[in-house]
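Box S2. Input/output pair 1.
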Amino acid sequence: MISRLLTAAMFVGASFVGASFGVPSASGQRAEPTAHDVMEKNFFATKVASLRVETTMVLISGRGQQRERANSGLVKLQPNGIDSNLVVKFSTPPDIKGTGVLQIEHSDSDDDMWIYLPALRKSRRLVANNKKDSFAGSDFSYGDITLPKVDHYRHTLLRSEKIDDHDCYVVESVPASDAVKANNGYGKKITWVRADNFVESKVEYYDLAGRLLKTQRTGRHQLVEPAKGRWFVMHREMTNHQSGHRTTITASKAEATAIPDDSFTTRYLEKE
């Protein structure tokens, strides 16, 4: 994506810690950044060099019934400083133990994604329109588990407001093409991006008919790479307003550590 490639060098290694709400203009007044700038910074704010995480996913029905799933994840930034590799493997409960997902991001083309189901003993490659499918039966889709490519959407800065005592930029994002709309299943998104660290605090997802479909809230933002101002979200909650179902993902550990490249292969994904 052209603008992402052109602006990558500006964001890679840039620290967002203590960023002011707006930047000084020539007149001395605070000038709002563009919506595209906000979403670029949001994209890079969580681009950690390499991270190992342990998380628990809880699926909560409209009646309050809960199902718990534990998984471990590995994330590693590719040499271009833009794309990441991600692998997630579930350890409990027994019926999904060994299930895993591998994603290799590509700036200039569709991401590569595979899912491994132990019962089949073979990885299956996912196509672009699988992004709207449920991730492991949760309220998160495959497309929700990583941030989308910035230039796949047209962004508009709606306003600034507080969420959980944090100043936020409120940005509306509309798919830039019919293909993006079809693959992700959203007519638009509205994101509340914190002004101090550029991590999203809240995201509203609207269906293709323009109705509110889901809301994601985040919390416990952990600074895992202080030198580069890179963060990890320790808690996420996705609520599906149309089904009454919701899912929480809570990390018990997020450790910046060296990860070998062969961890992001189908061979590793299939290893039980």
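Box S3. Input/output pair 2.
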Amino acid sequence: MNILLEKSVVQIAEQVSRFERTRQWQNYSEDELWREFIACNLGSRVKFELTKATISYLDSRGILKYCRTEFNNTDLERVISDSLRQPLTVEIAGRCIRRKYPFHNLKARHITRTAVSIYGSGTSLVKILKMGRDPLETRNLLVSKSVGIGPKQASLFLRNIGYCTDLAVLDVHVLRYMSFVGLLPSIIKTVQNIRQYEMLENLLRAYSYKLSLSMGTLDISIWIVMRVAYKGGVA
């Protein structure tokens, strides 16, 4: 099974790498960057389909733009929480179902405090991206200016906007895969701190060199393959 998983990842990576080269973060507006940043926050421990529907709903209601101009914490948090409580129609596994976003109070608090930290201080995501001397420093800057954004979410954001391809998104699918192919002695469900995150990231980076793939291409390919494998009862 391990050999089959690795072969599948390499095959998917050929398609992913072509798409990856089309994105350049300099072409994104501040609105687009903020939308993607919040999507990465909302996506933690939530199904991709529900996250996508939720961020689209917030955007259509003007909530994301409101976050960048309204710095009354109590009012902003209430508006976001109320919006996150709304049931949405989501297509999962071929079925349309009604779902509410979980953790609505927690995520409303995270988004509010992040918006105030970034925009309330007169900075912006564009300025932060230009400030970092390298991807690792930029990731640390994003984490330090945010609430609810750790290295995984910050790495996902930087990869999605085409900022860099050398940071790992160590979600549960990638961590499982790392154990299946022998990079880890057992499955790690959660990463405890930034030091452990960077250690695991370096293991995956060495593996990416072995396969002649960028980290960005590798971990999204792993994510795709492992989602399919679990749906099919293979992994």
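Caption for Box S3: The first strand starts at residue 88 and ends at 92. Residues 2-23+167-231 form a domain with the Endonuclease Iii, domain 2 fold (CATH 1.10.1670.10).
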